[in-house]
Design brief:
By secondary structure, this protein is an alpha/beta fold. Helices cover about 40% and strands about 15% of the residues. The chain has helices at about 5, 50-70, 95-105, 110-125, 140-155, 185-190, 230-240, 255-270, 300-305, 310-320, 330-355, 365-380, 385-395, 405-420, 435-450, 450-465, and strands at about 15-20, 25, 35-40, 75-80, 135, 155-160, 165, 200-205, 225, 245-250, 275-280, 285, 330, 465-470, 475-480. The strands form five sheets. It has a five-stranded parallel beta sheet. Strands 6-7-8-9 form a four-stranded antiparallel beta sheet. A two-stranded antiparallel sheet has the order 1-2. The protein is elongated, with a radius of gyration of 26 Å.
Length: about 475
């Protein structure tokens, strides 16, 4: 029985996911059989996303890949927050895009375009699949206004001098996602009260201040202004995925405020359950245990890694090596070790690829092939346990009883979830000067003539020029020291 046949044999029923709402690992059951509707909280595009931000999108991509690997058809939507995210969770302060535009002496529209393009470029380098629906907040102002009007009609919204706010006291389940102690919450720890009725109330629409100059503002039934940060995700996700959908992903920092508010405003408007499964990834932290964030000034972005010669996919490999619900510790030595492991994997791919052309379909009835396939699927389908899935992969690669053809085929199958582009691994050739190239050719002639002493002397000369020789089945490969 072939791999493709096995993967269609009711594997979907085996997927289990940790639902933040219930705090339990639950069997995944979609609303529509065979289809999954999934929403991913996207970036606020006031600056370049750092690698801690990108971890959440790698995680969402792995979740989608695992679902597709199991046979589901996935429809994924993601927002671009290009307006309304203020510098304070207290619904105070400057709009982050407007602030960035002022600092860079340009417009919020230009800032939005610049960093949206940068984010999509970084996502591509990390082999994150493009979402099916990429929706910008500024393209959906009318949908947000209409959702606020629905809340107003149901008496969830009220007016203050600086905007329209959601009355959280009217929603008894407020705080369930984060297990918030709403009664014991101190105003100063979360938001300033001002004219708000309750400590946890949040802005649905903010009025433009007479003294400020804004690039982004719109007319509304309540006055000229702009939407609050939270309303966009509810309006856009429900437009494209329905009033109740399967999966919502994001980082754990979204749990206590942003996602809690999404639930309140969505369910307040519809009277229906908003999302069935909430999945959250943990932080990437620096070696001093501080969360990576722009406010702390300890940001490392993908460009930083590339400048140091780190393949972006080596960072993806690092993320695969930790469960999405566990923190990842980051430092120079840690990313170096991940890069070395990823390089080792690519070398293994090249070794196996020699027999790829005649790779036969694995007979899953054979005990050894079935063992690794079953092990891999059981790890991936058990709450996306990629560290254990990687361990299964390495165990398979070291198994001396399997042929190279079988290993290569299984490896590419596993990569449907890992997303490391292992099928595109090629021997990298360095541009060298004529002297180095001539020495390399002379060494090859010496090796073919079995003149090992001369070959070793030439190798030492090449080493003195700053290169290390790796002998592969495709010929010698040079690497800089």
């Amino acid at each position: 029985m072939s791999l493709e046949r096995v993967l269609n044999m009711k594997e979907k029923s085996k997927i289990r996911l940790k639902n933040t709402l219930s705090r339990k690992i639950e069997p995944f059951v979609p609303i529509d059989d065979g289809e999954v509707k999934m929403y991913t909280c996207g970036p606020t595009v006031y600056g370049r996303a750092h690698i801690g931000n990108m971890r959440a999108y790698i995680f969402a991509d792995i979740a989608r890949r695992a679902l597709e690997y199991a046979g589901y058809k996935v429809k994924q939507a993601m927002n671009i927050t290009d307006v309304g995210h203020l510098t304070s969770d207290a619904d105070e302060g400057e709009d982050k895009l407007q602030k960035s535009a002022r600092e860079q002496k340009t417009t919020a529209w230009e800032i939005s375009k610049k960093y949206t393009d940068q984010f999509l470029d970084d996502a591509s380098k990390l082999n994150i699949r493009p979402v099916h629906i990429l929706c910008k907040a500024t393209d959906h102002i009318q949908e947000q206004i209409e959702l606020i009007r629905r809340l107003e009609k149901k008496d969830f919204a009220y007016l203050t001098s600086d905007g329209v706010y959601y009355d959280t006291a009217k929603f008894p389940r407020y705080g369930d996602l984060a297990k918030l102690d709403v009664e014991g919450l101190q105003a100063g720890k979360r938001i300033e009260m001002g004219e708000k009725r309750n400590k946890t109330d949040f802005a649905l629409w903010k009025f433009s201040k007479s003294e400020e100059k804004r690039d982004m503002e719109w007319d509304s039934p309540w006055g000229k202004g702009f939407p609050g940060w939270h309303i966009e995700c509810s309006a856009m996700s429900m437009k494209y995925l329905g009033e109740t959908f399967d999966i919502h992903t994001g980082g754990i920092d979204h749990i206590p405020i942003h996602h809690t508010n999404e639930i309140a405003q969505s369910e307040g408007a519809t009277g229906k359950k908003f999302v069935n499964y909430w999945l959250h990834s943990d932080f990437l932290v620096m070696s001093d245990q501080e969360k990576m964030s722009k406010s702390l000034g300890n940001v490392v972005n993908l460009g930083t890694l590339e400048e140091k010669g780190v393949d972006p996919l080596a960072y993806r490999y690092l993320c695969l090596g930790a469960h999405y619900r566990k923190r990842i510790l980051f430092g120079e030595e840690i990313i170096k070790n991940a890069s070395n492991s990823f390089d080792r994997l690519k070398r293994k791919v090249l070794e196996l690829k020699e027999n790829a052309e005649d790779a036969r379909v694995i007979e899953i009835g054979s005990q050894i092939g079935r063992k690794y396939l079953d092990s891999f699927r059981s790890k991936v389908f058990n709450d996306l346990n990629t560290p254990q899935a990687l361990a299964t992969m390495w165990e398979m690669l070291e198994d001396t009883e399997m042929s190279n053809s079988d290993k290569y085929r299984l490896l590419l199958d596993f990569d449907k979830v890992f997303g490391l582009d292992l099928d595109k691994v090629r021997v990298e050739r360095l541009e060298t000067d004529s002297k180095t190239q001539q020495l390399l050719e002379e060494r090859e002639l010496a090796r073919k003539g079995m003149d090992w002493k001369r070959a070793d002397k030439i190798r030492d000369k090449i080493s003195n020029l700053g290169f290390v020789i790796e002998d592969t089945f495709e010929g010698p490969r040079l690497k800089r020291k």
